[in-house]
Amino acid sequence: MYNTTAALKCTDRNSNISSTTAGSMQNHCQNRSLFEDVLCQLDGIRVLENDTLRVKVTNECSFSCKFCHREGSIKSGNLALNTASIYGFTRLHKELKLTQAHLTGGEPTSYPHCRELIGELKSIGYRVKMTTNGQFEPDLIRRLKDAGLDGMNFSIHTFDAQKLCSLQRREKNIEWGLQALRQQLENVHMAQESGMEVKINTVVQKDADIYDVLRISDYCKNTGIGFRILNDLGQGASSIQQIDVILKSMNANVENINIINKSSGGFLNMVAKDGFKFKVKCIRKNMLETLCGKCKERDECMEWFYGIRVEQANGGAMVRLCIQRQDYPAMQTFEEFFTSRQFMELM
Ligand code: SF4
Question: Of 163, 279, 292, 333, which has the fewest CB atoms closer than 10 Å, so is most exposed?
């Protein structure tokens, strides 16, 4: 079986890929890193455009998962939906060709203007999805769908109530865990019934129980719901090694590698021995030179340049370019961003 650890680690050096064909990838790989070396050996490499904007709409969440990076801030507020933020979203769509808006948090369903925001983003031209903990009244799904929501990614890391409690920073009891799991599964089912695109995201920590992940993958296989494994950014290589152990136990092989141009993000399309298809997220060392070039935190960098995020900070909507830093130019107002060197580099 192909060793996925090498592809998941993606460590050696910056590799902005500008071509969209595997053939051109071969040319690109004259002086290649380990990651690129792996890419060049495989057929079916796809290079996708970075078309996604992440919008952190609130910091509030009834969960407190230990590995959650909260998009880089524990202080951001509820996003102000006003002329300035809509103007910013419109320019990002038109000038950087961002076509997917992904609502995050915190928990997006607890954001009071969720439906209005979805409506505004849809009218600009975005497809809109969200990542949710699944803790909401099921009838909200119909209202979100009517507002234009295209998909929901449910964060489910275990089906075991006790383990769910142990993943939380805030102390929880077993009754809370049982109720939270019931609610998640009911809403996954309702979202699927609604016709929306539905996925389950499972973060694998270094000590994750293999059988927990296998149970979730079986559930997805039996229900036809998409399944994606993510590593814990804060745990670096040890989380990736655990993913590798899980993939081996599934007898899973890589079908193809998808890397995203001008982003550290990407994913492997996997197929298990029984034919079940799923994805594994991977991060590679992609830098935005005008941001990362002189960064003092480079040696400790977890995510590299992933893409553009927006959040509410300092009284307005701000562009965030890095989840580890809170200073300029990692954080900028829309006004600053559209005249910045980082914007020019991304054009
Ligand atoms: S910490 Fe942020 S600015 Fe520094 S290298 Fe990483 S992504 Fe770039």
Answer: 163
Q: What lines the ligand 1 site, CB under 6 Å?
A: 287, 291-292, 295, 297-298, 301, 304-305, 322, 324-325, 330
Tokens 């089912």, located at residue: 189
The model carries a pTM of: 0.86
Q: Report the CATH number of the 49-154+163-202+288-347 domain.
A: 3.20.20
- Using DSSP's 3-state secondary structure scheme, residue 151 falls into strand
The three-state secondary structure class of 102 is strand
Query: For residue 324, how far is its CA from the centre of ligand 1 (angstroms)?
Result: 7
Share of the chain above pLDDT 70, in %: 88
Element (H, E) at 305: none
Residue spans in the chain of domains classed CATH 3.20.20: 49-154+163-202+288-347
181 burial via Cβ count (<10 Å: 0-12, 13-18, 19+): middle
Q: Are strands 308-313 and 316-320 parallel, antiparallel or unpaired?
A: antiparallel
Express each pLDDT in 131-161 by its tens digit.
Answer: 999 999 999 999 999 999 999 999 999 999 9
Q: Give the type of residue at 305.
A: F
